[in-house]
Structure prediction request, 1021 residues.
Amino acid sequence: GSAQGSGAMGGSASLIPRDLLGEYQELTFLSKQEILLAYKRFSELLPKEERENACSARVPKSQILTLPELRANPFQQRICHVFSTSETEDDSMSFEDFLDMLSVFSDSATSDIKSYYAFRIFDFDNDGILDRSDLEQLVNCLTGQGEGSRLSSAEMEQLIQNILEESDIDKDGTINLAEFQHVVSRSPDF
Amino acid sequence: DGSDDNEEGSAVENEENAKGTDKGKKRATPRTRRAHARGRDRHGDEDDEDDEGGMRRAGPRRHRSRRRGRAAGNETGDSDMEPTKARKNQANQESKEDDEEDEDEKGGKSGKGKNEKKGDKKSDKKGKKEKANKKKKDKKKSGSGSDSESEEEPITEEELAKLKEEVEEKKKLIATLRNKPWKMKKKLSVLKEAQLFVEKFEGALGKGKGKKFYAYKVMMTKKWMKFQRDFENFKTACIPWEMKIKEIESHFGSSVASYFIFLRWMYGINMILFGLTFGLVMVPEALMGKPYGSLPRKTVPRAEEATAMNFATLWDFSGFAQYSVLFYGYYNNQRTIGWLKFRMPLSYFLVGVGSIGYSFMIVTRTMAKNANDDGGGDDTSFNFSWKMFTSWDYLIGNPETADNKFASITTSFKEAIVEEQESRKEENIHLTRFLRVLANFLALCTLAGSGYLIFFVVRRSQQFALEGLENYGWWERNEVNTVMSLLGMFCPTLFDVISSLENYHPRIALRWQLGRIFALFLGNLYTFIIALMDEINLKARYFLPFTMFDRLLGNTEALQSLEEEKIVKYNMTIWEASLYNGTIPENSTAPPIQVDPADVPRGPCWETMVGQEFVRLTVSDMMTTYITILIGDFLRAVFVRFFNYCWCWDLEYGFPSYSEFDISGNVLGLIFNQGMIWMGSFYAPCLPAINVFRLHTSMYLQCWAVMCCNVPQERVFKASRSNNFYMAMLLFILFLSTLPAVYTIVSIPPSFDCGPFSGKTRMFEVISETLEHDFPSWFGKVFGYASNPGLILPFILLMVLSIYYLNATSKSYKEANLELKKKLQSVRIEN
Prediction:
């Protein structure tokens, strides 16, 4: 997420109490200005009546996906799902979920926590490992929605074969969290 | 002391009261708050109140009411934690709380009262506490047990130590909490509970020996952490241009943004260099040195006075600009100036050396940091996995860029698959090789051509100088600078075209491109320097500086230089004598005749001339960049946009279309610029200031131009932030640019008539002079011993050996890594 920078503090400063702000600072990788800016962006997603209570309101997934940072992202659905703490499984997000998400995506977050969440995002079937079907879905997300841009099944097969050769250290046909973190920690681009 | 004791004790009691009553109680709040205000002194209060307040007021912000676990949680939890005293209160107030919670339910979910959801939160906390801290519970039980007795009995040493350990553990937990991949609610509850624990027992711990010191230490630590956090916030707010760069990132991806981040980093370095030169060299001389017009070296010569204030002269950095603090020649060689006894020559020397040292240090430090991020550079490269897991650029917020990104990812997948298959075949490798050799040959030809062109142009300018520059127009006067800038503009494009023959992966192609442009600029630079030295030789006809290139070329003219200087000096004494009507006074009894400094004949001042050349080059480079952007990008975009309607073919898709941002060219321009600054700032202290101005305006202009006139690149590849390639080039350029300055300091005698080192045989003598005058004598002796070659050579040997040792260790670590990997596989197979 790129909701960073010196935001307009204005009225939003009065809506998060100072101590809670301090705690959020302790628990996330965000600075005070970033948290306030996040609050502002979050409350803009709510309908006017609920804005007073932004800290306790939940924003439905459709609203979250209108954020420009998520709109163009192929993993938008997965991101909402992973960070949402909704009990009704509707992938709606509260302000704290929102902060969690921003914290993990921020520049100062450690590679460990980023790779942990990346693993969960890529794990489409939520079974704790990346197996063939997860990898296939991942590739399809990355190559876009157009018909011409998808890989043929032979290419897909080859690609997944190569990936498993590289990353699957214990050769069990799937990539678990430890292997994923090992691969990704070596990457300069992560 | 007694009163402190009481305070401490009452504070702890009040704390416990607060804990006891606060757990799900609302009515207690005002009372506990008053108790706090009473029981503690002002200092320790604020932070504690923060935490307490947070605990209390966080209640209404909770969004979910989970009352199910509350009742159960309350019983067990409270009975564990409550000290005996507060239990009665709790029993009383629980019934009250039940009533109030019913009211709250009626009142609706939206957080009305301050303390509405406190009960829920506490129950959450307790629930989580049970789950997450099972093993700590026992410890706490014993801890609380001992604490409940603490009011009556002193704590034993053992328990004290154990408590301390637990408190430390909790503190560490708090510090690393943000690293844990838990949901915010869980983190909040763990944090609160840990903070509670720490507070509760920190007070108790304070009861033992040295309690006052301990309490003080605790308070200072808290204050320090708060200060650190505020400072971090402040630092983040101070980072300039953050929003601009983020916007560019979301439109163009991180490779274009990496250029701007690099620019910002350079700006920071230049600010520091500017601070050094401005604050320690220019300002003291301006404030405390002799004013303009008091010395010959500080005055415009009579011959030039008429044109000294013209804009053309000032733009050329002669006239008044030359005889000012901006250049080396203005500074006087007095050992101390002003009432502060500021040592000007020493300061000048140290600032020069210090700038170089600082630049080295910061570039190396950034490289080391990037190398850490790189993950140590393993032997394996996970090509496909990286493409899969790390190729998406999460900073992209623009659908158009996203589409480009999708396309490029697909292409790169297909390419990689095909390449993998083809690497197992041997087909057509000869054609590729031939094309690559051809491309390199063409690149070499371009380099040679550009080198020759510069040489030719400089020779021509020497001819012009011989015939007198007044006869020629603007082009002839500025030919060298313009040609160098134009070459720098067009050759990279040529290299780009050549590289399309080679068919490399874009990242590798970028490196080849950068390497070639690097060679181009390097060749131009050194050709320029050689030409510059020759030009100085020619311009100042009556002297020839003892230059290193002359020496390299075995030029015997150099030997004449010292002779020439002597001649000038002799001429000056004769001129002085002529003022005394023909007699050369042997003693100084005759009163000195007042001569206007503007009339005194001047000695040569090659340092100022060199400084001027560098300044002119920087300014012309800056102008060229701006004009290129305006014409090459802006006018082109305007043309394509508005003439598209009335043109035969589609201008936007065919030629010329909108331009893409040229990362490599811009980065290299920036690096070479900086090389100029490093080279010239010793001779012209104004150079960092000019560069700061240039970078500042450049940032705004280029940000605007990128957003307005450029389109995202077709092949969007991610330039990782930890790209050490730029840094390595910067380091190399730094090394090369400081060579001339260091050489002149060590080997060339400074001009006798200008600058802070005039009169000395070597510039670094200012150090030995300072050691003699300003330091005690033993210091000088120690320094003398330390700079003995007999000591320095073994030291260098030691460093070489340690480098070798570290290299060997890192190799062995890599091998150990491989072994472990194999082991992992075999273990899994066994299972």
